[in-house]
Write a structure and sequence with these properties.
Layout lengths: L3 H11 L8 E6 L7 E4 L8 H10 L5 E6 L9 H5 L5 H24 L1 H8 L2
Parallel strand pairs: 1-3
Antiparallel strand pairs: 2-3
């Protein structure tokens, strides 16, 4: 299981960061490769990292930027897919996906969640 929650809680407490200023960026098997979705809160959607963060924070009221990695894996082979290698097309597209996610994160930090969702969600 992904144990992201302990690290998130530690840094929120250590730096005295309000949860409304937290942005969790994660991979998402339920979104097509490269698609990105910013939300103010929500369910873990089966993502172990989000499950752990929810458990450690006691809620799911934090922003998350989901980045699609697709779901082209055989049943029961999800881990191999997630930890596998990028194909040539994915490698070519990946820098643009990362740049877009970075710009979204910067926007979240400067103009806030609502305006960022309006301008960056497609």
């Amino acid at each position: 299981m992904n144990r992201s929650g302990k690290a998130v809680r530690y840094w929120l407490e250590k730096r005295k960061v309000e949860q409304e200023n937290l942005l969790v960026i994660l991979d998402d098997l339920n979104l097509e490769f490269g698609k990105q979705r910013l939300r103010p809160k929500g369910s873990d959607g089966g993502h172990n990292g989000l499950k752990d963060i929810d458990a450690m924070l006691g809620n799911n009221n934090y922003a998350r930027l989901r980045i699609g990695i697709g779901n082209q894996y055989d049943k029961g082979r999800q881990v191999d897919f997630v930890l596998g290698k990028w194909n040539a097309q994915e490698q070519e597209t990946l820098p643009n996906i990362i740049d877009y996610a970075a710009e979204t994160a910067k926007s979240f930090g400067t103009i806030g969640l609502s305006l960022t969702m309006t301008s960056r969600n497609k």
